């Protein structure tokens, strides 16, 4: 009878449909678990990023202050009784700052594998904003590399690299300090009068001009890239924590 065929068709249809629903649900659960793993990894990387950004911003504040001091002392060396040791000390901050680099391997994995869609629209959009700001910072670093190369070239034409290592005990990294805390080595270096390689006033004037420019570049990086990048990272951390119940 036709009813027999109808019920067979209906049972077969229901079996296939239920199987489809079960498979769809299973795939959804798998994708959710995968997204949660990505979210947890990204969450940890963003926390490292914010720490690195904070450190770079602080380094910029310290280094630009020292470079400004060098520009002032170098310009008024005679009237202020400036020793070469003072110039060596402050000039060492010319090469102190390391450019910021992100721990964004998870974002690269999400983009490369096409799994960014797993994170949902809100999270995906904020990830794209964060990546765009990172790319902007990296592009700006690339644009300023020739200027930094010129500054370093002048630096080593004026200052004795070997003397820098001796005076500052393992180089500029040794003199890293906070705004209100000066290392004991500074006072000792100030009293020294180690000769400069080149005493040409014109070259010193050129170097001071480039250092003014370097300070402006560092402040530009901080204000226009690093601080907004930190804000986006903080927003993304809060969003991941909320959406995926991370701790």
Write structural notes for this entry.
With about 250 residues, this protein is mostly helical. It is built from seven helices and no strands. The longest helix is centred in the first third of the chain and has 74 residues. The termini are far apart. About 5% of the residues have low confidence.
Shape by Cα distribution: rod-shaped
The description of the largest β-sheet is:
none
Structural class: mainly alpha
Radius of gyration: 29 Å
**Beta fraction of the residues?**
under 5%
Tell me the number of strands: 0
Q: Mean pLDDT, as a whole number?
A: 83
Which series of helices and strands comes N to C?
Answer: HHHHHHH
Reconstruct the topology from this structure.
Layout: H1 2-75, H2 84-91, H3 105-113, H4 121-158, H5 161-167, H6 184-190, H7 201-244
Keywords for this entry:
247 residues, mainly alpha, 7 helices, 76% helix, rod-shaped
